[in-house]
Amino acid sequence: MTLSFRPLPRSFYARPVLTVARALVGTYLVHEQAGARMAGRVVETEAYRGPEDRAAHSYGGRRTARTEVMFGPAGYAYLFLVYGLHWQFNVVTGRVGEPEAVLIRALEPVEGVGSMALRRGKSRAARELTNGPGKLCQAMGIDGSAYGRDLTSGSLAVCSGPTRQRSIGRSPRIGVAYAGAWAKRPWRFCDDLSPYVSRPSAPPPAAAPQKPAKLARNG
DNA sequence: GAATAGATTGTCT
DNA sequence: GACAATCTATTCT
What we know:
Shape: globular
Radius of gyration: 18 Å
Distance between the termini: 61 Å
């Protein structure tokens, strides 16, 4: 069976970054490459809202070759490299002149899972293919060459598709401790019903102990 | 399961 | 020259 995906219109992205970050959970990232299609359901996002957000690359209105796309119209791809190794895929949101973007942090693989596994290089469980921002770029074959691409048409797009029940949880963003108080804002959104998130939005309820207490050996 | 170290390069100071 | 919106393998429990 072939799933039906339709690219989201630019109006979807041209809204406040927190609105878009939440709305993106449950959409699909679709990449067609060499005649093959890969698709993943978005299960985790983070909002970055320059210029006031200290965690954002556009903090203070910093406008360089790297951040330039965030200052333009919504619905385009922002790619950057961290630790010299891992690409991160973002979508530009808001109005022209507002340097905002949403980082896609995790997907549930739904189509082209075999290709994803090949790109990830080693034999891995499905959950390990795309449960992190660097992992999903590697799995989907997305890198810096996608910088500035229009996501409302073409071979790389964010789409609506089959809907499914979701429960959206919020938590602080990951890996931005340097941002002080901004790091504590609950600007990370994830589908708590999905096992494909990079980590749960909240610790499991403290109920019964996970493991029985170790018993003393007697005799 | 948790803690740790190491990889590796574009970007900005 | 310092550092980074991360991931993996290894070690210990």
